[in-house]
Amino acid sequence: MTDIPATELPRRLSALPPAEVQGLADALGREHTVQDVVLPQSGLGLLKLRDGALHDAYYLGEVPLARAQVIVRAGTGREAEGGALILDDRAQQARSFAILDAVYRAGLPGCERVRDLLARGGAALVREERDRRSLAAATKVDFALLSSSLEEEDE
């Protein structure tokens, strides 16, 4: 039932308008009982990288982070835990992602709507990638033309 890898969920959900994601999470929150394992939080995290030559660690800078962890209980008694850690400063957005994660992963009622939302997010990512490729192709430079014009000037 969960054919989309867990690592893809935040990426696909981030490609959609936040109001659409929030709307579905709110609707599922009314249908199920949602309990926060920890309160949703947002803040800054240090981005640590490793130097390619000497392999020394250094901090590139700060990135916004939001984190949420929830337990969703369906009316049938089934429950699932979901979580999200996203590069964003909106804690409520992370909570929405966590609710959708729990419902989708456990196959709770409403998981079909989450799957449809994830499919739309995947389609948005494909469109974005296609647009980027077309922009890159439009700005491609053919240096062969430059070398032939330089040869003409030398003659």
In total, the number of domains comes to 1
**Strand-pairing-aware structural class:** alpha+beta
The share of residues in extended strands comes to: 25-35%
Number of beta-strand segments:
3
**SSE string, helices as H and strands as E:** HHEEEHHH
Characterize the largest beta sheet: strand count, sense, and whether it forms a barrel.
3 strands, antiparallel
**Which outline best applies?**
extended
Helix segment tally: 5
Helix content: 40-55%
What's the Cα radius of gyration?
A: 22 Å
What does this structure look like?
The chain has 155 residues and is α+β, with helices and mostly antiparallel strands. It has one domain (6-154). It contains five helices and three strands. The chain has helices at 9-14, 18-31, 91-106, 111-138, 143-154, and strands at 33-50, 57-73, 79-86. Strands 1-2-3 form a three-stranded antiparallel beta sheet. Helix 2 packs across helix 3 and helix 3 crosses helix 4 (111-138). It is extended. The N and C termini lie far apart (69 Å).
What attributes does this structure have?
155 residues; alpha+beta; 5 helices; 3 strands; 28% strand
How would you sum up this structure in a few lines?
The protein is an alpha+beta fold and 155 residues long. Helix content is 49%, strand content 28%.
Which SSEs are present, and which pair or pack?
Elements: H1 9-14, H2 18-31, E1 33-50, E2 57-73, E3 79-86, H3 91-106, H4 111-138, H5 143-154
Antiparallel strand pairs: 1-2, 2-3
